[in-house]
Amino acid sequence: MARVFWTAIAIALVFSSWVDGFEGYYEHQFNETELSLLEAHEASLSYAGSNLLLVGLTLVQNAAAKGAVCLDGTLPGYHLHRGYGSGANSWLINLEGGGWCNNIRTCVYRKKTRRGSSDFMEKEIYFTGILSNKAEENPDFFNWNRVKLRYCDGASFAGDSEDETAELQFRGQRIWTAAMEDLMSKGMRFADQALLSGCSAGGLATIIHCDEFRGLFPMTTRVKCLSDAGLFLDAIDVSGGRTLRNLYSGVVGLQGAQKNLPQICTNHLDPISCFFPQNLIASVKTPLFILNAAYDSWQIQSSLAPPSADPHGYWRDCRLNHAKCTAPQIQYLQGFRNHMLNVIKDFARANQNGLFINSCFSHCQTERQDTWFADNSPVIRNKAIALAVGDWYFDRAGVKVIDCPYPCDNTCHHLIFR
């Protein structure tokens, strides 16, 4: 069953890459390809026959008056499933991911998709993994109020600008604010516990907004943040260039994100550097948990060895399947892992922070049931991700675990693209 499921994902990935290339949108292989398919609710569609929780879309009705709109001017939205019992006053906010748009062309394309317009969003999505309502699938958060905030701005909820000629609204920061105000009015202001989480571009947004989220609540409320697959590194690609920095330069400049990035960073670094989480994490005051694959599939495919940096295709097979990497390529990827471990050193020194870095070729592990909490989930020291996060959140144990280097971990759910 699992093999069929991941084969379907791989086929979908190839197809979506081809479609996006055909649309002239493949440029950096960044948007609507790997990222969208590696995230949870797309994956969960393969389980459509199962008894899964479907949660409807709520549009933020007063958002337009605040200018808090998607790229195309439509209302932003979220999916909310109410908590009960011991979780009635606990809130988990999950920020959707899905890449970024860095120029007019890619943003215009994006506004015709669910990543840029609520007109194209699914009216219902499946809640799995950290959003599941079953105790056996999500032991610590199953009965909380669980929210999935949809992503339709293309700058990790950080921009505030517009382009009238192209009819584009870059209002991620306003969407964040309007959504939080709406949820506070629906009971979140009474929370005694809250967790902000997100995967990929949503994981980056979690880091950017973590202290803001803390500021919504009284100090008596337990507030923490969880970034899944959001540790994007300012790394040199295989051609010696900086593919991801070039992309972020466009995102920050076009969308006016500079004024919404943490000042503690922008006071001494340029705004592009402050869009990289490696320059933010050590100064986040709120307890933060970083969950990341040491060999993040998206970063390998789209930041380290994208086709634009590999014109002769030397990295193509390795990019799609880690088992086809040559010894020098694996050595290069070990260097990427070392870079990641170096970046988190200062962050890891703070007792309040948590860490789970596993040596897998994957991306986004909290929203997929098989990687979050299942019989064969990835583990470090015999502890699954869900239990590690729960132990950290509830102060049952300190959690700072780093896997041994590839290929030592046989519990990984590696992503393979065909």
Automatic annotation (TrEMBL):
Pfam families: PAE (PF03283). Keywords: Cell wall, Cell wall biogenesis/degradation, Hydrolase, Secreted, Signal. Residues 1-21 form the signal peptide. One of its GO terms (cellular component) is plant-type cell wall. It is found in: Secreted, Cell wall. It comes from the Eukaryota. GO terms for biological process: cell wall organization. Its EC number is 3.1.1.-. Its main location: secreted. GO terms for molecular function: pectin acetylesterase activity. Hydrolyzes acetyl esters in homogalacturonan regions of pectin. In type I primary cell wall, galacturonic acid residues of pectin can be acetylated at the O-2 and O-3 positions. Decreasing the degree of acetylation of pectin gels in vitro alters their physical properties. Belongs to the pectinacetylesterase family. This is Pectin acetylesterase. The gene is LOC106757094.
